């Protein structure tokens, strides 16, 4: 009989680790990446979690991603560092950058760690939330793993979704965690709609004729749109400078589409930063002040027909705890895809009996 209920997080994590290991990823690295991929789903970032397994396996099989990467620090000062990801799975370099940034912030008040020769690493929230949970502020950004939009007013695809994330501690259950693409929608959302056969709203993409594009299966025929028009374009360029060029990583026409090209090194650029409020004489006072201000925001009477005011990150702690306890409800399309990947990898299907 088909299993329709949620899958336990640990079981899903074990399956992903097995799949990665089947493509030559050493056990400890496979466990690390699998843990972060499932953690993305636990915190509600389904477009950047286990859904991405097919892409990662394809690049490992095609030679575009190094399964046995040796992540290393190639440049370092008291407060900064540059990590070389050795073209391995992006989660490994970004996890190392996050941990090093936190350590430097503890010593110097700030830690800024760039990454070159990385790869797609899931949602940036994974690399800033730990800072907030440790009483620090976190910042991360990345050059998108494919170019999906032109410079403002142009037609050549030279920019990606170039996401940015910021996290901060608060005196409450939920830290402030803000994670966004610099486009109206992340490409991952469009890909999940395509997987499920659903349309996308107007305003996410336009065709080369300038008309709205709503069929996600035709996403290759058009452009993503930046948030805020020219302002989003400018922000995307700024992130490209900080996460790409500053680290000696790809930006502009050097960016490799990691979905369509499974054989070339992407040289994806990212950075992770941590900031200690104690360096400004605040310590725990920052979290308390943030909680007070946020309470004012939430108390603001909502406009007619609107939900109560929320802050980025609100409710995620409780929802994550529920998913850890009750398991993860994946879409039927994703469940079928994971079963198909299991067959390709010659490992047990995570959803036995499902087509």
From TrEMBL:
Gene3D superfamilies: 1.10.1530.10, Hypothetical oxidoreductase yiak, domain 2. One of its GO terms (molecular function) is oxidoreductase activity. The keyword Oxidoreductase applies. The keyword Glycosyltransferase does not apply. Keywords: Oxidoreductase. It holds the Pfam family Ldh_2. SUPFAM superfamilies: L-sulfolactate dehydrogenase-like (SSF89733). Belongs to the LDH2/MDH2 oxidoreductase family. This is Ldh family oxidoreductase. It comes from Roseicyclus persicicus.
């Amino acid at each position: 009989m088909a299993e329709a209920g949620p899958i336990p997080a640990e079981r899903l994590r074990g399956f992903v680790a097995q799949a990665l290991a089947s493509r030559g990823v050493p056990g400890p690295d496979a466990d690390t990446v699998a843990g972060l991929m499932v953690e993305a789903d636990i915190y509600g970032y389904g477009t950047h979690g286990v859904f991405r397994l097919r892409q990662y396996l394809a690049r490992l099989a095609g030679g575009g991603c190094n399964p046995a990467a040796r992540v290393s620090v190639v440049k370092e000062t008291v407060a900064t560092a540059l990590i070389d990801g050795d073209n391995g799975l992006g989660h490994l370099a970004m996890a190392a950058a996050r941990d090093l940034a936190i350590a430097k912030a503890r010593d110097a008040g700030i830690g800024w760690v760039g990454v070159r020769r990385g790869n797609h690493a899931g949602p940036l929230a994974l690399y800033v939330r730990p800072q907030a949970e440790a009483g620090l502020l976190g910042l991360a950004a990345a050059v998108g793993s494919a170019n999906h939009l032109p410079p403002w007013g142009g037609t050549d695809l030279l920019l990606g979704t170039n996401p940015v994330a910021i996290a901060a501690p608060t005196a409450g259950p939920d830290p402030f965690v803000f994670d966004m693409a610099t486009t109206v929608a992340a490409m991952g959302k469009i890909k999940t709609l395509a997987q499920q056969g659903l349309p996308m709203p107007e305003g996410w993409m336009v065709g080369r004729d300038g008309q709205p594009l709503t069929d996600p299966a035709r996403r290759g025929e058009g452009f993503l749109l930046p948030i805020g028009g020219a302002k989003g374009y400018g922000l995307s360029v700024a992130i490209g400078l900080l996460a790409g060029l500053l680290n000696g990583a790809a930006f502009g026409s050097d960016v490799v589409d990691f979905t369509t090209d499974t054989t070339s090194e992407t040289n994806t650029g990212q950075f992770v930063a941590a900031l200690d409020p104690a360096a400004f004489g605040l310590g725990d006072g920052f979290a308390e002040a943030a909680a007070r201000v946020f309470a004012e925001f939430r108390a603001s009477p909502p406009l007619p027909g609107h939900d109560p005011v929320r802050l980025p990150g609100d409710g995620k702690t409780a929802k994550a705890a529920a998913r850890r306890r009750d398991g993860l409800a994946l879409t039927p399309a994703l469940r079928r895809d994971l079963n198909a990947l299991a067959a390709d990898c010659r490992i047990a299907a995570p959803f036995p009996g499902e087509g």
